[in-house]
Structures are given as C-alpha cells and as structure tokens.
Write a structure and sequence with these properties.
single chain, 401 residues, alpha/beta, 10-stranded mixed β-sheet, 13 helices
Length: 401
C-alpha cells in the first residue's frame, strides 16, 4: 500500500514517562505504516528541558506559530517531589503547557470521547460538553511569597508615564502568604474571539461564567469584553444559526450544567477551566478519554492529550511489566493534528486517514476490546475484554489496515 504523503511538517513535541512510551507505540503501529510522516521534532522531556534551560519549549511554541499545527505528548511539571526524584534538575521548571499557551495566546478546548456503552455519571447528559479554558494568566502567571511578621502588603502599578496606582492588599498580625495575579485585555479579547469563532464552527451554544460579584474589577473585565465582542461582532452570526450566548455566575453555571443535556461549549477562566475539564472528563468516563486542542486567534492549533504522564504505569513498565495504559487521548491528538494539517495543505487523503484512525479506535472499543481502566465503566451486560496497551494498539492497527 502506498503511503500518504505530506507536504508540510507539523510540530511534534515529545514528552515524559508512560505517555512518551505510548507516543512511540502510536507512531510505530498506527501512523508510520500508512503516512510518510513529516515532523519538526522537539524533545520536551523534563531532562531535555533542564539541559536547554527550557529554551526547547519556547522553540517548540514558536515552531507551532510558524507551521500552524502541532501535536504534543504529556509532560512533567516539576514540584518539590519531582525535584527529589530528579536530582539533576537545576530549577523547578514552569509548566510547558503554560509557556506554550502564553506564546500562542491560545484557548484550550477540551471535549470527552464518547462511546455508547459508557453512560455519564450525570444521567441526563446526552451530548458531550466542551470546556473552553482561557490559557493565559491568573494564578498560572502569578507571583507569590510568604512573610513571617505583622505588616501591610500593597499592590502598586507604575505606568510608563510615571503615574502610579497603589492599593492596600491587607494588614496582617502575623505570618501570611501572598499572591499577585494579572491578565491582559488583549489576551481576554483573544480568548473571547476564539470561543465565539469555535462555537460558530461547531454550531453550538456558548456559555461563559466567572465570579464578577466578588472580583468586580478582575472578573468584571472578562464579562465586559465578552459582551462587547458578542454585541459588536458575533450576535448576527449567532442569531442566523439559532445559537445562544449565555453569561451567568460560575456557581449558577455549575448547577445549570449538571441539570443540562450537554451539547454546548462552556468558556471558563484558566483555573476554573483546569478544574472543570477534569470534572467533565471524569463524569463522562475517564480523563484518558478527553481530547484537547489549543487554538490561537490566528488559527494555530496544538493538539494534545489532556491527562498526565501516568507515572505509576511508567515505573511498572521499567520493571518489565505489561501495562494497560489508555492511549485514546494520544491517538486523537495525532488524528486531530493530521486532519488539520491535511485541511491546511489541501490533502483530503490525510484528512480521511485521521478520520479513519479515530473510527478504527472507536470500533475497537465498541467491539468490547479496551484497556483495563475502562472495564469498570462499561454498562452492565456489555461484553468487555481488558487488554494491555500494546494489544489494544494492535487491534486498532488491524482494523485500520
């Protein structure tokens, strides 16, 4: 069989631990036999980020801006425990996802991969809920510190003109912790535009929620910009398609989401989106069954699995044990990137291959063959057989061939 040829490379960002192992297996078994793969490769494994002073992450993000499409493996964001685990680390490096999101100024859209034999925990959910997560600022760009004595903290902004604004944060009577967050109007506006454009492309309603009753200025600016963009640019197109834009407080939104039937896009600030995307994934079945695509306002897309590096399975793998790690999110990251590359380059056969890769993966699950994490989620009476990761990928490859 003649392999599908690519004309433009996509950016390949390799990662860490068990997902790095799966990354290689997915390429070897599901892509390279069928596609003459062209990638610009960047190793975002923790030790290489350390060796390059994290410059490799910046280079990868800039390559994504240049080539328009990227696919990323899960990576480690080190904490104190990881610093002990990897004593060669010279710094507690920042989240590579955060760095890439800041450079691309993108919005992360996450949606569950739905199969008929896994019923959502929320029984009235009939269609997937897509989480649109703002991918810049807030606590992910915050600075924080601890103080040991009584005193007063202030927040001061000094403009280029020399003008200053100062607020008293709090006066404390003893040790305290402090955090300063920020966001930019340009990034909030890009977030809003990405959400409205994505809702139009998917023909789905858009919900947006913050807590502007408490953070009257901070969250209030998010609300104001979304409303301004909708009224000035998107209302007519929404009405033409019969779509709704809806704003409410986040606590009210959570209640409405739980009572809903799904089938809409829920836009959230950075931390809220981080938490709620995991909640939606778990409620629909598994974080390993969650797609994620970072979309910049100028159309750059970076596809990734939304889960972590599966450390526990990795250490079992190093002992020579067979693991049953679910590769579905990694497969869909690759299929999404290949489809997007095919769309941009006018290669319908590459788009079709991405679609067939997804179909073969879903058919394998629907036949009852799955990794063991999904077995407890299957509906009673469904004939399911748990296999290890390699067996699962071989089953998909056989269907794909």
């Amino acid at each position: 069989m003649e392999k599908i040829k690519m004309t433009t490379p996509l950016v390949e960002m390799d990662g860490d631990e068990m997902t790095r192992i799966l990354w290689g297996m997915v390429k070897e078994k599901l892509i390279l036999p069928f596609v003459e793969l062209k990638t610009e490769y960047y190793d975002l494994g923790l030790l290489n980020r350390n060796a390059t002073g994290d410059q490799v992450t910046i280079d990868a993000a800039n390559a994504a801006k240049r080539l328009g499409v990227a696919v990323k493996c899960a990576t480690i964001t080190p904490n104190r425990q990881r610093m002990e685990e990897y004593p060669e680390l010279t710094e507690m490096w920042k989240s590579p996802n955060g760095t890439i999101r800041a450079i691309l100024d993108g919005t992360a859209f996450r949606a569950p991969i739905v199969v008929p034999w896994i019923r959502p925990v929320v029984k009235n959910w009939e269609q997937p809920i897509t989480i649109a997560r703002h991918a810049y600022g807030d606590m992910y760009k915050a600075v924080d510190m601890m103080t040991e004595e009584p005193g007063t903290a202030t927040l001061t902004f000094r403009g280029e003109s020399g003008a200053e604004k100062t607020l008293v944060v709090q006066t404390v009577d003893g040790p305290a912790v402090w955090q300063g967050q920020h966001n930019k109007d340009s990034s909030i506006r890009a977030f809003a535009r990405s959400c409205f454009q994505y809702a139009l492309s998917q023909r789905q309603d858009l919900w947006f929620s913050t807590k502007d009753t408490i953070a009257k200025v901070y969250d209030g600016e998010f609300k104001r910009i979304f409303e301004e963009e909708f009224e000035n640019t998107y209302r007519t197109e929404f009405e033409k398609l019969g779509l709704t834009y809806f704003y409410t407080l986040i606590d009210d939104a959570v209640a409405r989401v739980v009572r809903s039937k799904g089938g809409f896009i829920w836009a959230l600030k950075n931390y809220d989106g981080d938490v709620m995307s995991d909640m939606v994934a778990a409620a629909f079945g598994s974080l390993a069954m969650m797609t994620s695509v970072l979309v910049s306002p100028d159309g750059v897309m970076e596809f990734e699995a939304s889960h972590g590096t599966v450390t526990r399975h990795y250490y079992r793998y190093l002992k020579g044990e067979k693991t049953s790690t679910n590769p579905m999110a990694t497969i869909f990251a690759w299929s999404g990137a290949l489809k997007r590359r095919g769309e941009l380059d006018g290669l319908p056969e590459l788009v079709r291959f991405g679609q067939r890769l997804e179909a073969a993966s879903l058919e394998t699950l629907e036949s009852g063959v799955m990794t063991r994490d999904l077995l407890p989620l299957a509906e009673p009476g469904f004939a399911a057989r748990g296999v290890d990761s390699e067996e699962f990928l071989n089953e998909i490859a056989a269907r794909l061939a």
